[in-house]
Queue: 3 jobs
Job 1
Amino acid sequence: MKRWYLPALVLLAAVAVLAGAGAGHLRATAAEPGSDADPLVAKSYVDKLVALKVLELKAGQTLRAEAGAELVLRAGRAVAVTSPRGGLADLTAGRDIQAGEAVPANHLILVPRTDGRGVKALTPAVLLVRGGATVE
């Protein structure tokens, strides 16, 4: 009775190897995830999301940012422009910046909502901006 076990195991192993090789062939011929043939997201969306822009504001200009935008004041002086729903999140200091309060230089500022929040330059200012923003 035990004699049929060995050929059955060999046959089962051969089938498993062939099935694995066939599956590998199917994976190799499918489009690579993220390639031009199978994009995960649009390139323009990624560019807007991760692009770091350097913006120069003149004294009196206001930068209004979209939800999720990140700002870093690199030079000059600026104050926070907020909304009735709240201020700007200073991620470096771990606090909320309120309307008219000075924006600290070299701090990472997060804009939580698209409701008019941003910064107003008191002097010529240079900001690093990631995300959507408009200058007025």
Job 2
Amino acid sequence: MFEGSIWNPEASVQALSYRILHSLKEEAWASDLISSVDYDENTIQWALSAFEKADVHKDAFGNILENGDTVVLTQALNVKGTNFTASKGTVVKKIKLVFDNAEQIEGKINEQTIVILAKFVKKDNLFYFHKESF
């Protein structure tokens, strides 16, 4: 199966084949097949990028944050560009992770979307229910 796809001239097929074979590299046949091809360095990097661990957003206590989480501010924060301070204990619902910066999240406080440093929040593990759910 891989003998055909690994020789495909399409870079995307080569990368996928290499990626699969790389995950099976402990098998002698897969290792032999990988060593039998001479791919462009960019194709190999593309293939191996699937195994790279992305930056993870973590709160002040090391808990992993995800889009949609609810967090609580661990200290009062002066909100730049506004005329208010976000109090310690302020709940921020439905956060969004800043894609290219694991130290920042976005959330709404006082109806304004702001950027918050993840080190100043604690993931709130409580579940918030609407009256309609009961």
Job 3
Amino acid sequence: MTYYTKIKELTKTVPATLVDFELPRDPARTPTQASSNFITNKEQGDWAENLVFRAINDTSKNFVAVKYGKSDDLVAGEDGFDAFYQEFQDELDTIGKRPDILIFRKEDFINDWGG
């Protein structure tokens, strides 16, 4: 079963009174500037993600962390942000939010991906 199919099946169990997944998502407006609060939170999130990534890869004998989600450093107001933001919105509509890090058993990753 694919990730998309599994998520689609799971969403069928959520009552429509809580979230109606059949309703189209309201299009998001592209932000025009990033606030200092946003930039600070983004930096803290990036730091925490990197910390987990390094902690697993530097210390684990059994697991490997692989970066997976979007990792662009663009923020609102920078060149290219509009296109980046729209691509991200299209991805959300198609497959949903991807996790930023995937964790595999090391032996599976090496055997399946040549890691």
